Amino acid sequence: MIVIDSASPVPPFEQLRAQLARQIQDHTLAVGTRLPTIRRLAADLGLAVNTVGRAYRELEEAGLIETRGPAGSFVSAAGERGRERASRAAADYAAVIASVGIDTNEAIRIVQAALTKGIAVSPATADPKEA
What we know:
Elements: H1 12-25, H2 38-45, H3 49-61, E1 65-67, E2 73-75, H4 79-100, H5 104-117
Antiparallel strand pairs: 1-2
């Protein structure tokens, strides 16, 4: 179930993207599951079509879903690569933290702050050259 909080400071497209990504990653939405059409989901959630379209595009860019033309959008088997990518990024981050002498609690606070501010929320918009 997707719930969009209109009072949240997080934009609706990001709320939708994050909830779908979480459902894909925890296998609530299994590989091969057909997602509702953009128009249908927009109507069901009371969102603009462009809002849902943006969330779907970012999920597709992240490899979590794939669009098969008129057949629709489906949960991609490639979604597991996202988890592996995050694991590698975490290992790289841990190495950087160790090399600069930051303690574990501070390192966790840095990650929490980044996630809260939305810095690391949308991998599709991240510039890999900045990493």
